[in-house]
Design brief:
By secondary structure, the chain is of the alpha+beta class. The protein has 20 helices and 28 strands. The chain has a 7-stranded mixed sheet, with helices on both faces. A 5-stranded mixed sheet has the order 7-15-14-13-8. Helix 10 crosses helix 11 and helix 18 packs across helix 19.
Length: 787
Amino acid sequence: MNKPVTGFRFIGQPRPRHEDARLVAGQGRFTDDFNFPDQTYAAMVRSPHAHARIVSIDKTRALAMPGVLGVFTGADCQADALGSIPHDPVPKTRDDMKLTGPGGGDIFIGPQVLLPADKARHVGEAVAMVVAETRAQALDAAEVLDVVYDELPFVLQSEQAMRPGAATLWDEAPDNILVDTNFGDAAATERAFAQAANIVAMDFHIGRVTGVPLEPRAAVANYDGTSGRYTLHAGSGGAVRQKRELASILGIEFDTLRVLSFDVGGNFGTRNRVYPEYGLVLWASRKLGRPVKFTASRSECFISDYQGRDLVTKLELALDGAGRFLALRATNISNVGARCVSLSPLSKGSGLITGNYAIPAASLRALAVFTNTIPTQAYRSSGRPEVTFAIERLIDIAAAKLNIDRIKLRRRNLVRPKAMPYRNAVGMTYDSGRYEENMDLAMRIADWDGFNARRRAAKKRGLLLGLGLANYVESSIGAPKEQARITIKPEGDVDVIIGTQPSGQGHETSFAQVVSDLLQVPVEAVHIIMGDTDVVRAGGGSHSGRSMRHAATVFSIAATALIAKGKRIAAFALGTTPDRVDFNDGRFAARETNRSFDFLELAQEIPKLTLPDDLAGGLAVVADNEMHDPVFPNGCAICEIEIDPDSGGLTLVRYASVDDVGRAINPLIVDGQTHGAITQGIGQALWEQCVVDADSGQPLTGSLMDYGMPRAHLLPSFVTEIVEVLSPTNPLGIKAGGEGGTTGAPAAIVSAVVDALKPYGVLNIDMPATSHRIWQAIQDAKAKSAG
């Protein structure tokens, strides 16, 4: 295991989160905490049909209801020439997998207008908005709005959507396919399969989940008719992006809109893209001349929040007689829903289809299809848990079918450290990693060798004990551009304005640690300023594990510029020239004088100095950076699951995780992120699933009564280790630490369940592996054996 580079005071230290004092004292600044004087309230009227033509909307009864100020429809949006949300779903960095439309053409994404005038394309799509004096009045009026629909055929599953005769969502995509791209070397793959001693194949469907944020989606807007400015409070992963996209929708000048996004009550990607309601409340505020607020109910979130996952993947693995991997053939089919919000899951998953393994040849067909479901979006670890699940489960199945120990099979095929940087068979280049060492460490902290004794003890109690393992590698890239502005003030404050922003990751603390070490100023003096577009002018927001890597890199650039500027200013204070000023141990000094200054002391000197114009701004710099190099966090997850064969009841008894995050800025925060990420992955593996009725198109998981969630009493204490194999792509060697736990968990969990069911000959089980599914698998195996 790599030891972190030493020499820092605060980087690498497990400091408690500075922001927690504010949050636990009820001083958070969440969207629903904000209100404007004379505020009104909006309610959405949502389609009850999966696919239906909007024949007419009669506003008469709704407008007559008490307190109603306005009813707005798609026709009104068209009359005011409102644009569609400018979703830009194709990743734009240099090394992203380049997706294309069928035949290599452009990708048609299906425009998302604020309110449709033609058709509703999924249950829960907003078709009208009511604004009233109170929220209750708005909801009452929404109930009586007369909407006449003409129901149309619908399609819910991606494979069904591609079949001839399937219901079509968009005339521009008559077969519902918007992406069809091939990667890898098909000819080399076919040659390897022709020479293979063994071929193992399996199809998997990694189903849909949703973010279930603590604070339901909300937005409050105010239009000031005097100044012509708009203000919007809306929690998100990137205020600057939201400002740019909303200004485009409304057709207004960029600088006339201010977006404020402070504390975000749950995200994981769910809130990284603009929602129609954000534009609607801004528009309504201008039309009505009063502030407008919208807060979704929990049930609304279940039928209108962007959802995650939903990938069908079909894999074939070719092996030689010694169990070495020769080639992989795969087809990935992503269900983007009624409109394409993000293709990040398909793109990122495509680049990592071979996982941690040295597979010489691969061929992948990547497809994306429209269905009459809620749009999907990049969800925690975007695309990586899906492909990790597929390759890790396929390796387990291959080991079982070929009677090879699953650890030996993995060990034989893992990418070696000396191969780094390693270019995989579809063209993605991994930066660094020690995969076998991670697996060995995970097995050690999980007490792998003691498992057989624990299994025998469980058997005596009438229980089945299963042991699961999954290796993972993920990629973190994200929007390439980031900006930081750092000002050191005479009052002793170091103000740091940064374009990326947190949704619970502890950036106020960890960012301050980085700046403190780079400038050698007290960490308590560093103030991180984010989330207000009147202050934050540029930046890519928080997604794809990008925040710490991009922020630390642009901080490093800013620090270099500040030190150079500080030397020039110190030269005036010391009566010498900049070339004779050194910056060591946090102090500016020159050999010909015994005076010296740290940054805070130098800032206090500036008012006493006569500086040239180019130094008139004092100790302040703006730094921009564009980063295209991906990083590849990696690790290994191991779990033990106990099953009651009579009921299918399941208990998760042990969980161990090793995560290579590159440099860990704050291990305490990284551990917390790891624990949360593991829990999220376990949730999908065992409980979480968005279910839609095949006959009606109606969601059956519309509340927390229907949607299973991980809870503390269902989880064991996690045993985790942070590994720091530094990335060569950025100054501090950072990879990412917020998503790895999610990436490996589903495969490890299902691996453990299947291992427990080994006596029944079960090779795989679909997620979520609920008690009923486990019980049914046991009953089916018994019936097959009896037959």
